[in-house]
Amino acid sequence: MLKSVGKRLTITVAALTTLVGTAAAVAPQAQAAGTTEYVYSNAMHRNVPVRIIDGGGGKAKPTLYLLDGLRAPRNNSGWLIETDVDRYMAGKGTNVAIPFGGGGSFYTDWERRDPKLGLNKWETFLTKELPAYMKRKHNSDNRRNGVAGLSMSGTAALNLASRHSNFYKAVASYSGYPTVTMPGFTQGIMASVAEMGGNPMNMWGVYPAGEWFANDPFLSAGNLAGKRVYVSSGTGVGSKYDASLTPGNPAFNPTKFAQMVPLEVAASTSSQLYIARLQTVPGVRLTTHITPDGAHWWDYWQARFKESWRTTFRPAFF
């Protein structure tokens, strides 16, 4: 598998570098479950809006943190705009926290304030400040925690889970790029930050110095021993969800194909390399879903989220 993946590496990382910023939430928001609450972050010196679906009941509950993609809006989330995940999770005995914002941030603690993207201390917020709020206001037990994300935040979710393995019991990445410091992927991540107007040097410093290697899920995969991990991606050949991405179909849209499919091909390359690495880690309870679908989009991620709930998060929590 690694040999065949390697043959595609040059093409896919080039696609990632030039196109990683194209996927965005554009549909109007449906009525969503849960409430939007404002959680003050001392680290970022501001209130962060968070959509919270309370798990209900009087007992202490697990909490699933659900992260948005590269173009995450400040006052909404693609998970709420594009999927029914919030309603799907209602009544499942689990708190769900969906923070708004974080576009281009990789949900990490930046080394410096950025002139465009501001003060980003998302790792601190997600692993300390927000969990303290969830325990205080929503009876989270802060013991059964999970984190999930797509594309940019798929990378972030795996990074957070690896860096804070005592905090998370389960993690899921949908079409993420967990090979952060492999040639091409580093440049792709830099390009995605720049696409959002940020300076990637302000994030983890000047590559190969700074914090780049400390934030590479591939390198820290050993920290996930004993955890439940879900990794999915499409290989980029058409889509059962969207006829416009399937060559030969009357509805085929070559422009849309060029924008979305290379992103998923790159995600597949990175995810499969990461899967091979995880398979060498003792005790990892790994679920994977690699398919021919090429949609780097929310319909694919919605389906994969629901699968990860059944295979990964629910077994880790209950």
Describe this entry's structure for a reader.
With 318 residues, the protein is α/β, with parallel strands linked by helices. It has a single domain, classed as 3-Layer(aba) Sandwich (Rossmann fold). Helices cover 37% and strands 18% of the residues. It has an 8-stranded mixed sheet with strand order 1-2-4-3-5-6-7-8, with helices on both faces. A hairpin with a 4-residue loop joins strand 1 and strand 2. The N terminus is likely disordered.
The CATH topology is Rossmann fold
Number of E-state strands: 8
Relative strand content? 15-25%
What do the pLDDT scores average to?
91
Spans with pLDDT under 50 lasting ≥5 residues?
1-12, 17-30
Number of domains: 1
Number of helices: 9
**CATH C-level class:** Alpha Beta
Anisotropy-based shape: globular
Q: Return the structural class.
A: alpha/beta
User: What's the alpha carbon Rg, rounded to whole Å?
Assistant: 18 Å
The percentage helix is: 25-40%
Task: Give keywords.
318 residues; alpha/beta; Rossmann fold; 8-stranded mixed β-sheet; 9 helices; 18% strand
Spell out the blueprint of helices and strands:
Blueprint: H1 2-19, E1 35-41, E2 46-53, E3 61-66, H2 78-82, H3 85-89, E4 95-99, H4 122-138, E5 140-150, H5 152-163, E6 170-174, H6 185-195, H7 201-204, E7 228-234, H8 254-278, E8 285-291, H9 298-317
Parallel strand pairs: 3-4, 3-5, 5-6, 6-7, 7-8
Antiparallel strand pairs: 1-2, 2-4
